[in-house]
Amino acid sequence: MPNGTPLQNTQLLKPVRSNGLTIIGTEAGCGKTVFMTGLAAMLRQQGVALSAVKPICFASKERAESEISFICSISGTPRNYPTTVISSAKNLSEAQWEQSLSVGHDSSQFMFVETPGGCASPMSFEQNSVGTLAHSWKDTRDFARELGYSCVIVAHHNQDAIERLVLAYSYLQDLPVIGMVTVETQAEEGKVLESKLTRTEVALLLASRTSVPYLGCLKFSPSISVARVNQGNLIKVISEGVDLLLILKSLNLNVVK
C-alpha cells in the first residue's frame, strides 16, 4: 500500500457509503464524463433513481458549462447544484471543498460523482498567513476518501491502459475500488492494444495485479461529443461495452425494468 501510514490504514476500517459511486480517472480527458453519464442514463432507463454530478471543474467556464450540461441533460439530473469552476487547485477554498462534498452527498437518490483530473491531481493547496503555499495539500484521492463511496477507475483505451490502471490502483488501494473501465476517446485509439491482447486477456492481467474486475471498454463514436452536448448513440456504446450486471452486483443495485 502506498504511503502506508497508520492514518491511511485506519481508512480501511471506515464503512463504505452504499448510496454512491465515485468516478476517478488515471488522468484528465480519459473519458470519465462519457462513462459516468452514459452509465447513469442507461440505469435510469432501467428504473434506477440516481443523480450524476461533477461538483468541481478545473477548466474554463465554457468547457465546464459544456460538461455540466452534458451530464445533466443526458443523465436526467436537475441543474440545481453549485459547481466550483476554477483554473487551479490554488484557488479552491476550504469552504468550496466542503460545499463540493455536500453536493456529492446531498440526495436521497443513488449518487454518481465525477472527480476532476487524475487520481493524484492536486485539488486544494493550503496557504499560510502571508498567502504562500504551505506543505499541506489535498488531491483527488483525498476527495474520494471523504466522499466515502465505492470507486471505478477510468483510463484511455490505448497501449498504456494496463500500466496506468495498475499504477492508479496502487495509489488508490486504500479506497473501495470495485472496477476498471477503458474509454476510446478518439478513433482507433485502442488499435495497438487490441492487436496484442484480447479483452479477456486484459481482464486477466489487471485482475492478477489488482484483484479488481475489468468492466469493459467504451469504443469511440463520432456522434458522442461532450463539447457539443451530443449524446449520439451513448447508451448503445455503454450497453455493448461494459458489464452492466457486474456493476449492478458490485453496487447492490436492482433494476426495476
Secondary structure: elements and pairs:
Blueprint: H1 6-10, E1 20-25, H2 32-45, E2 50-53, E3 56-58, H3 61-75, E4 84-86, H4 94-105, E5 110-114, E6 122-127, E7 133-139, H5 140-147, E8 150-156, H6 161-171, E9 177-183, H7 191-196, H8 199-210, E10 214-218, H9 234-241, H10 244-251
Parallel strand pairs: 1-5, 1-8, 2-5, 3-4, 8-9, 9-10
Antiparallel strand pairs: 6-7
Helix pairs in contact: 2-3, 2-9, 6-8
Characterization of this structure:
The protein has 257 residues and is an alpha/beta fold. It contains 10 helices and 10 strands. Strands 2-5-1-8-9-10 form a 6-stranded parallel beta sheet, with helices on both faces. Helix 3 links the parallel strand 3 and strand 4. Helix 2 runs parallel beside helix 3 (61-75) and helix 6 (161-171) runs parallel beside helix 8 (199-210). It is globular.
Q: Radius of gyration in whole Å, from Cα?
A: 18 Å
Largest sheet: 6 strands, parallel
Number of continuous helical runs: 10
Strand fraction band? 15-25%
Identify the strand order in the major beta sheet. 2-5-1-8-9-10
Low-pLDDT parts are 1-13
Helix amount: 25-40%
* Quaternary status: single chain
Q: How many strand segments? A: 10
Mean pLDDT: 89
Sketch the topology as an H/E string, one letter per element: HEHEEHEHEEEHEHEHHEHH
